[in-house]
Amino acid sequence: MRTRFVSLVIFGLLFFLSQPSQAQKGPDPKLIEGAKKEGEVVWYTSMAIDQSKVVIDRFQKKYPFIKPTLFRSGGGALMNKVLTEARAGRFAFDVVGGRGEMIQGFKEKNLLASYLSPETDMIDPDLFDKEGFWYTYYVVPNSLGYNTKAVRKEEIPKTYEALLDPKWKGRKISMDNEAYLLLQGLITGWGREKAIDYMKKLAAQDPVLSRGNTERVTMTGAGEYPLVIAYAHTVEREKFKGAPIDWIALEPAVTEIDPLMIGSKAPHPNAARIFLDFLLSKEGQEMLLEFQRIPVRKDVEPKPARLFRGYQRIVERPDDYKYFSENVKLFQEIFKTR
C-alpha cells in the first residue's frame, strides 16, 4: 500500500512538472477565439517605424489570423491624437504606447482598460500597474557619461554630490535643457526640498544646456565636454561605435518608461490583450535587444546587462505628472532656460 501511495505521489509530481506554465501555454483560448472573430489589432506607438514595423511583422507571423495596423507618431503628437479622437467620440486604437505622461492623462479621461497580463510574473512590480492599466514596454535610465580621454578613472564622479566638485565647474557638464523628468525623479526619491537644493547647486556649476540626447553624447565622445548627463543606452551605443566614452549610474538612477496601455473602448479587445502579452513575452522582449533598447523582463538580459542591473533606480511614476507643469517651471527657473 505504501509503495503504491509513493508511486502515485511521484507520478502526480512528474505530471505537474511536465505541464507548461501559463506563459508557455500561450493566450487564453477564449482570447484566441475572440481575436479570430475580430481579425485585427490597431497599435498607436511612438516607437521608430523601422522597429515597430519589425514588431508587427513578427506578431502577424505568430498570429496570422490577426492583421496588425500600425500608426506611428511622436509622443506629444500621439497623445494629442488620442485625446482629440476621444473628444470626437472616435476610439480607433487597441493598444497605445509612447510616454509616461500619457498614462495619467488617459486614465483621467477613462480611456484605459484594466487587464492583468500573465507576463507580469517575470516583471518587477515597479514596472507595471497592479490594477493592469499600464505596463512598461522598455526603460530609459539616465546616467552620467564621461569622455575616457578627458576624465581619469580616479576622477570619475560616482555620486550626484561628486558632480558638485569645483573641478567640474564652468561648462564641463552637458545637460538637457528639458531635463524635467530628472528633477521630478529626484523629488520622488529624495523629497522636494533636497532635490531642489541639489539642482540649484548643480546649476551653479554652470553646465552646458542644450537639446538632443544623441547629439550631446556624440559631442562628449568627440571631446567637446568631459561629462554628460544622458540616457545610458545612448552612451553605450556611442561606445560601441568606438568613441572614447563610457558611463556610470548615479544612484538612484532616474528611469523613464515607455508604457503600453489597452483602450477602454478598444475595437478589438481580445486581439489587444494578445498583442500586449506578445510585447511583454520573452519573445517580444528579446526583439528589443535587436533595436538596442532595454527590456524589462527578468529573464531577458540587456546588452550589456549593467544597462538595467546592479544599481538603485527610481522609476517614473504616472501619478507624479499632476506636478509636471509645476516641475517644468521650477526647472526653468533654476537653470534659467526661459
Structure report:
- By secondary structure, the protein is an alpha/beta fold.
- Helices cover 41% and strands 17% of the residues.
- The protein has helices at residues 2-18, 22-25, 29-38, 49-62, 75-87, 101-108, 180-190, 192-203, 213-221, 232-240, 269-280, 282-290, 324-335; strands at residues 40-45, 67-72, 95-97, 135-147, 173-176, 208-210, 227-231, 245-248, 253-262, 313-315.
- Helix 4 (49-62) links the parallel strand 1 (40-45) and strand 2.
- Helix 3 (29-38) crosses helix 11, helix 7 (180-190) packs across helix 8 and helix 11 crosses helix 12 (282-290).
- Residues 5-24 have low confidence and may be disordered.
Summarize the structure.
The protein is α/β, with parallel strands linked by helices.
Radius of gyration: 23 Å
Distance between the termini: 84 Å
Helix tally equals: 13
State the shape.
globular
Strand content: 15-25%
| Percent helix | 40-55%
| Largest sheet data | 10 strands, mixed
Mean pLDDT across all amino acids: 93
Structural class: alpha/beta
The total strand number stands at 10
SSE order, one letter for each helix or strand: HHHEHEHEHEEHHEHEHEEHHEH
Low-confidence stretches: 5-24
